[in-house]
Amino acid sequence: MRAIRIHTYGDASVIREEDVPRPVPSRGDVLIKVAATSFNPSDVGLRRGLLRSVFPLDLPYTLGGEVAGTIVELGDRVDTVAVGDRVIGRLDTGGAAAEYVTAAADTVVAAPTAVPLPHAAALPIAGVTAWQAVFEHAGITTGQRVLVNGAGGGVGGFAVQLAKHAGAHVIATASPRSSEAVRQLGADQIVDYTALPLAAALDGPVDVILNFVVVGAQHAATLMSLVRPGGVVVSGTVALRATAGSPVTAVRFVARNDTSHLAALVKLVDAEAVRVDIAASRPLADLASVHRDAESGRIRGKTILVP
Ligand SMILES: NC(=O)c1ccc[n+]([C@@H]2O[C@H](COP(=O)([O-])OP(=O)(O)OC[C@H]3O[C@@H](n4cnc5c(N)ncnc54)[C@H](OP(=O)(O)O)[C@@H]3O)[C@@H](O)[C@H]2O)c1
Fold first, then answer.
1. Does ligand 1 lie within 6 Å of residue 174's CB atom?
2. Model confidence over 160-172: pLDDT tens digits?
3. Residue 307: CB within 6 Å of ligand 1?
4. DSSP-assigned letter for residue 129
5. pTM of the entire structure?
6. What confidence score (pLDDT) does residue 172 get?
């Protein structure tokens, strides 16, 4: 089968399309025919070796940290899913940038039926990260004013929708290329972060900030100043520190692979309460150029890759 692998850490030229044996599902695993995987910024960090101290790769490594596809074979002792099931899941050891991938049966959930199967590959990482930011870390409730910083990205787009679903008034940062898409996702107010100082655009403090941008110290301080006393700042990127004596709760988190959150998200997609907004669908063989595009800031929203 075709697979997109790296044999060494490095720039995007280390990404190669190769012929490799089809994986065989071990006990407890399923074999999935990949309908799509999706690109995440962390794929660039993995490929460059930036995460090797916390997450060393077993090289050669097949890229692809999440999958949507159809189960075609079961390993021993699998009775929770069946051949023919359409599933999605996050794969913590990669492998989805290929025609087939194996996954532990208990890490996949039924794919939503309201969207095309390849689109559902956008949910396991970005969707679950947004879910945990909104519901676990920020505990967003009806009537709160919530600022989503980085709403033009994959995670931010889901966060806007989930915060709206929780009943919040959502203010979203987006540059002109993303503002229409973010408006369609339900944001009440959009601030063009390339044109306006955030503080000037806001009509008073917010209760919650959800941050999905790698911000520098100065921008971080600006964000912290926009939250009301007693408010919450949740960051999926850098830590945003509350200043000494400031009554703001600051949380930095790394999303867990939690199938209950993924299944809950699927329910919302099927209820048409959450849209899976795909900015681009590209052939899997283009993965190296998707990495290059990401490194030069040309990727927005979710890009899926189809074998
Ligand atoms: N904590 C975790 O477990 C976890 C999980 C997943 C992702 N992440 C991290 O979260 C971040 C977002 O991930 P993603 O998948 O959403 O990335 P993405 O889709 O690549 O997001 C890129 C978006 O960020 C926006 N952006 C860039 N600079 C900005 C700024 N100064 N202000 C506001 N928006 C800005 C851009 O929006 P415009 O199009 O509007 O310019 C762009 O579309 C990444 O750093 C990723 O590594 C963390």
1. yes
2. 999 999 999 999 9
3. no
4. H
5. 0.98
6. 98
Q: Which atom of ligand 1 is nearest to the CA of 45?
A: 47
Please tell me the distance from the alpha carbon of residue 305 to that of residue 303, in angstroms, as a whole number. Answer: 7
Q: Can you list the domains of the chain with their CATH numbers?
A: 2-112+276-306 (3.90.180.10), 126-252 (3.40.50.720)
DSSP-H helix ranges across the chain: 41-48, 128-131, 154-165, 176-184, 198-201, 217-225, 259-270, 287-295
Is the CB of 178 within 6 Å of ligand 1?
yes
Strand 2-6 relative to strand 61-62, pairing: antiparallel
Write the pLDDT tens digit of every residue in 182-240: 999 999 999 999 997 888 889 899 999 999 999 999 999 999 999 999 999 999 999 99
Q: 236 CB less than 6 Å from ligand 1?
A: yes
- CA proximity to 47, closest of 301, 298, 213, 288: 288
Mutate to test the pocket of ligand 1, among 155, 237, 262 (most ligand atoms within 8 A of CB): 155
193 lines ligand 1 (CB under 6 A): yes
